[in-house]
Amino acid sequence: MTTPPSPSPEPAQSDRLLHRPGRATVVAIAIGLLALGGAATALATHQGVSVGTRLAPAGHAGPFALVWRLFLALAVIGVLAAIGARIAAALAQPRIIGELLAGLVLGPSALGSLAPGVVGWLLPPQVVTLVNLVGTVSLVLYMFAVGREVDARWFRVDGAALGAAALALVALPFALGVGVALGAEELLAGPDVSTLAYALFIGTAMSVTAFPVLARLVAETGLAGQRLGNLALTCAAGTDVLAWAALAFTMAVATNGSAGSVAASLGGTAVVVAVAVGIVRPAAQRWVVRLGGVQPFVAPTIAVVLGTVLALAAITHRLGVHAILGAFVAGLVIPRDPVHVSDIPERMDSLNRSLLLPVYFASVGLQVNAVEVIGSSAILGVGALVLAAAVAGKVVACLGVGWAGGLTLREATGFGVLMNARGVTEIVVLGAGLGVGLINQQAFTVMVVMAVVTTVAVAPLLHLLRIGRGPSPGHRVEPRITTPSNVLPGDHTMTTA
Description:
By secondary structure, this protein is mainly alpha-helical. It has a domain at 65-245 and 333-471: Na+/H+ antiporter like fold (Up-down Bundle). It has helices at 21-45, 63-90, 95-106, 111-114, 116-122, 125-149, 159-183, 185-188, 195-206, 211-220, 227-255, 259-291, 298-318, 323-333, 344-366, 370-374, 377-404, 409-419, 423-435, 441-456, 458-464, and strands at 481-482, 495-496. A two-stranded antiparallel sheet has the order 1-2. The longest helix has 33 residues, at 259-291. The chain starts with 20 loop residues before the first helix and ends with a strand.
């Protein structure tokens, strides 16, 4: 029979650090309580010291006091955005729709009107400022990811025709947008903004197609790799570039008072883009090739990538054309190298989309005041006109281009429906315009609603047209479109991951 192990022997008296640990514990606690009590008594009875005295003036929270308020606000926004995204996914809609709805719930369209005290406590002005700052950083990182998804090789086959098609798909809705803007200037324009800058901005916002959202819709409807899906993605890539160029011009006009200042701003931006794309990008590619099989260093690579993004964003912001344009250019510059750059940009984008970007879209929803718009018949009428012009501009242009290019009427109509997916890009453009005062709060609400409606309608309309497969509820795809050199706009070999 095995003898059970004997219990460990008590340490010898000579091995103890304290010979009487029990008595030492009691004395230590007594000393601590007496010391702390004496300090508290001294502070309470000293002249000039009173309980509750604030270091900062009343109404101004210090930086440490704001930290927990910011974290609480981000937690509430993040949870609501996650719930909204899940609901949107269950309805086969892009996550951004649910994230916007989270902001609408907290904003003046819902809880902000029903319980303004609760929202005011959760989101005081100082916290809102910090939330917007977090959203701006996430937006810069997102635009970097969008820039990486644009590849000139999409235009290798029939490049001239596809470039002309992209121009037409921007020009017609742009012209209709300018017409609507001029007719509703008193209702939509920001205070003290020039008519030219305001009209250019509305036209630019109407001409947008969101490449990332369109890529997801193409994948979910089974059009990835098919001619119609490839055509839509190629034209969306071209319209994205044209839209950012138009936005840069509009921002330069809006933020500079004279023609000379506008020219200097645009000239400086053109130089930055030319140097970045024409010099820095090839140099970075050559540097990657020379490294060969050298083991990459993750931390320095992250620093270089993030530093490039933020530096170009800062430069374009300083030039007066908005930071998001610099981040977009950074996406074009960073090499697409699987060894040394590796998947670091993709990991950054994944983290940003999961944690920070929902905060940005929810913060956009916070600025939408549907109650104010619903209460004005004039604004509702203008909103209907904006929606009709936005849809008609894309559909009519796509019908013309599609008919000329040999598409059937049903395919050309489906092409127009796909190009009406505005989503993320539209929200980004509208946020930039509201931030510099090109449009007022009513115009922002109207345009956001237009972006949501045109994006949500894409999948159901394609189903009605019997194009692609109908999206199944609960089916979620977060595609990343890859375009190797052998994938051309008319091919059927495009892959999604």
